[in-house]
Amino acid sequence: MKDLVQCTVSRNDFQRWLDWGNAPLTICTGEKAVTMLLKIEKKPVDYLYQTAVEADGCISWKNGLTFCGVHGIKNHTLYLTESLTAILTDGQSPFAARAIPSVVNEICGRINRRVEEIIANDRNNLPTQIVSSGQAKRDLQYYQDYGAKEAVIQQIFANQVPDGQFHSDYILNELPEAAFMAWLQDPEGFIETEADQHIKINQEKFLLQFLKDDALLAEYQALMQDTENPIHRMKAITEALKASGAKTVTVTVQKDGAELTFKAAANSLTGHRNYYSTYDIPAQDRREFEQLFGRSANYCAEDITMISYGRNTIYEAPTAQTAEITEGYGPAMQMGGM
Q1: HSE value, Cβ hemisphere, 13 Å, CA-based, for 210
Q2: Contacts for 223-232 with beta carbons within 8 Å, 24 or more apart?
Q3: pTM of the full predicted structure?
Q4: What is the 3-state composition of the chain as percent helix, strand, coil, each rounded to the nearest 5?
Q5: pLDDT in tens, 298-320
Q6: Residue 333: per-residue pLDDT
């Protein structure tokens, strides 16, 4: 079954057809017939099907029926496929209006919220407290050794902090008929059953999420306390360049006891990098760089003492590496301030 959109009926004539109509219903836009609807009863609902309409407003024996919706007989609920929704909600006098954009998203959202309520951000509410799978153990070890550090760097450059919250990941790639009918007849019961089942199936995976969150938070705290870590300089340089809007900037570096000022592309200095490449330096400046520091040399954030754009200094290296780092890297960090 395709994904469905929950709708509300906007016209009495359409509601009467849904409740009592037996003959096919032709949907027109203005004077032009655009599709024909038919109902097939499968209690407690009617299934809706549509077929193409020829130019003369009639159907042909070549036309097939396409499933396009569900109408709840008892409670008058209406669910339509996206294609029919577009037709029925269009025009000055639409037959229906959207109520819930996606039944699949609604179901998944409610199940995920229920899973999170049951677990309540407490690993002790999980059925297991042990990671037994060999693959899961290797995954956790890799994350503790490498993945957490990479994730923290990404979060810092995105101005994010670890939230430390458990998040459920229930997803439906499609909406099976049986699942939809179960949800339609008993939404609360269906949500509770699916949430319990999701926890049971993924208990070790969820425990792994808690353990990875521990590693992520520890890595974040360690990095924030390490005020001399070059990542803080890279972050300050990135924020300064983004705030300036510059395409090309003037960079001054001190390296191996020598100093050089040269032009460089601004985007070559943003983000987390192990080093900055000389390929983004204009040819003449690059030759001077190579003559002074060597043909294979690059430079890194610790080497940069100043960056200017026009007559304005937009970044200046901190004079004391132990200066306080403001949590979240607010606007004051654009000028360095490490």
Answers
A1: 18
A2: 223/149, 223/152, 223/153, 223/156, 224/325, 224/327, 227/321, 227/322, 227/323, 227/324, 227/325, 227/338, 228/321, 228/322, 230/300, 230/301, 230/302, 231/153, 231/156, 231/272, 232/325, 232/338
A3: 0.80
A4: 45, 20, 35
A5: 999 999 999 999 999 999 998 74
A6: 26
